Amino acid sequence: MPVAEAYLVIKNKVGLHARPARLLVQTAAQFQSRIQLQQGEKSANAKSIIGVLKLGAVFGDVLVLRAEGEDAEKAVKTLTELVDRKFDEEE
Amino acid sequence: MTGNTSSSISPVKVMAISPGVAIGPVRLYKAKSHAVETAKIRPEQAGAEQVRLQQAIESATKELRELSEHVARTVGSSEADIFEAQQLILADPELLAETTRLIAQEYFSAGAALQQVAESYAQELEALENETLAARAADVRDVTARAIRHLQSGELAAERSNDDTPVLVVAYDLTPSDTAIFNPETTLGICTVVGGPTTHAAIIARALEIPAITGFDAHLLETLQDGQQIAIDGAKGLLYLQLEDAQQEKLRSAMLQQQRERKQRRTQNDTFWRAQPGSTADGYAVQMFANVGDVESARAAAELGAEGIGLLRTEFLFAGRQAFPDEEEQFDSYVALFQAFAGRALFGKTIIARTLDAGADKPFPALEPLIGAMQEANPALGLRGARIHLVHKELLRQQLRALLRAAGVINIQLSIMFPMIATVEEIHQLRMLYTEVRRELEREGVILSPDTQVGIMVETPAAAVMAGVLAREVDFFSIGANDLFQYTMAVDRTNSRVTGMFGLLEPAVWRLIARVVRAGKMRSKLVALCGELAADPRIGPLLAGLGVQELSMNPAAIANVKAALHHQTRDYWQQRAQALLRAETAQEMSEML
């Protein structure tokens, strides 16, 4: 099973709350892979809104994103881009 | 006034939530009790219980979708987001897995299982000691309570009170769902024991401009009676439990004054402008169109007074898909979207569809098997938009067929535009392909609308510079202001290290826009513009002054821009737009706004 990993740096102002958390989860849900987010001791299923909120990630936090499955690489790439684009908050 | 000598007459200090004064009779609001049957089930019932859970979640999700549409119409789209997010909670895989496990292994009833899981998540969120996240705990409880109500009664009783006496709602706590169904016309104010400024209930109260306070003593709930007169000041955070005559009078006149102002504002900004076509004070029309990305927003666009769809982002069909939708599926989706708009539109039925605008920075998994992996060092300058059409003509052919057929079925005025054009040759090739597709459909006996327009997005400096030549080859231009800015200034709009160095308006961009408008005018071609600039009520009218004939923006901005445009005459806007053309720096431009 392919595995892909990347570091995510949260660059948007509000962190992984509200709309950004929603976008992240909705995007993750498009992939078949199992996708986990890890922050220090805590880890969460990236497809679970409650799990992502419980991480409580704020501006400047670094998370490890890990996907496991056929589309792992694509999932990591798409999610990394979403976070790097700061969830298109300008729009 | 003898007022503040008696302590029973001084107001109680509470937390201010939503500004404004309210005075009137109390209505004690009790949330529907949802005491959960704690009874466990027999092992053989577990299967049936899982089905009940599934059904309750489906019904609750459907309700939330409706509530979200209702709030989008009556309050605003960002407030409707609350209920979008709630839908996501009901779809949470962890929550579902744990609930299912409790039913299957510990023989909990569906309601008890959901309650237990949700409560433990809510408490974990609260334990994070972050105000915003604690507010999300309220969402988790609100949304599971909704699903549990479905488990108990099968359906939800109508919650909205039909009584139209204006009241002050007094409650221990209010969920976002409670607040969203209050009628702002009859809800004078809201008082709760618990709550805070960042709860969804508070956000909705502010959006509806209902005065609200929170944080009074829970014991008061037992002493207050329905119908008793109280008053609140939602700006200062005051609760008046007893009122002198003079005080009553003063508060009442403040409330009436504020209601008059609110009504005036609402009428001006919303209902009134929705029903008006865009025009200057002296009656020159400037069409106000909407940017639309799915069926929901097409419906919202019609309801919010859009005179057409100026940018239909067809990407909605392809996003999140593993397999590319075929012509039939595309056809069905376009029909549904056209219908959603045309069925409600107050004005014309023009829909400008942009063909698939993909690129390495807007990747679509479904495209990869067809055109290869999208990994590029410079996605903004790579294989994207019309460039993909020209290398993979079959995809465009399919999309054009589906669009043209759909426009033949639903009575709308369809225009088609191609994204990311840089040269006149691209237009030649695309038009040739378009003509072939039309001929093909005609041969098949498909009924086509005779006057479909074909145009391009002007978003590269090349297209703007060559606009005079390109204008001969197209029926219209639509300036993609966001991308034109990015490519002209060579600045990545999402890169915060550089965006801050540039203004909202840059002279280079403004002059290019003016150039495109002139080129269109010379050939009597329509020039439209879509992008964030159009939605800014200070700038939209200035673009009209520059000669842009149609502005396309997010639907929620339309009423505002219509109102702004109507403040002044065409001459006025023209003069100001021309003055901006003489500006040499972004600084100068922003001072002139």
Textual characterization of the structure:
The complex is a heterodimer of chains A (91) and B (593). By secondary structure, chain A is α+β, with helices and mostly antiparallel strands. Chain A has a single domain, classed as HPr-like (Histidine-containing Protein, Chain: A, 2-Layer Sandwich), CATH 3.30.1340. Helices cover 34% and strands 26% of the residues of chain A. Chain A has helices at 18-28, 49-55, 72-84; strands at 3-9, 34-39, 42-45, 62-68. Chain A has a 4-stranded antiparallel beta sheet with strand order 1-4-2-3, with helices on one face. In chain A, helix 1 runs antiparallel to helix 3 (72-84). Chain A is globular, with a radius of gyration of 12 Å. Chain B is α/β, with parallel strands linked by helices and 593 residues long. Chain B folds into 3 domains: 9-31 and 160-246, 3-Layer(bba) Sandwich (Glucose Oxidase, domain 1), CATH 3.50.30; 43-153, PtsI, HPr-binding domain (Enzyme I, Chain A, domain 2); 272-592, TIM Barrel. In chain B, the strands form 2 sheets. Chain B has an 8-stranded mixed beta sheet, with helices on one face. In chain B, strands 9-10-11-12-13-14-15-16 form an 8-stranded parallel β-barrel, surrounded by 7 helices. The model of chain B is unreliable at 1-8 and 154-160 (pLDDT under 50). Chain A binds chain B through residues 11, 14, 17-19, 22, 25-26, 29-30, 45, 47-51, 53-54, 56, 71, 74, 77-78, 81, 84-86, 88, 90-91, and chain B through 81, 84-85, 88-89, 91-95, 121, 124-125, 128, 130, 132-133, 136, 140, 320, 361, 363, 365, 368, 493-494, 496, 499, 532.
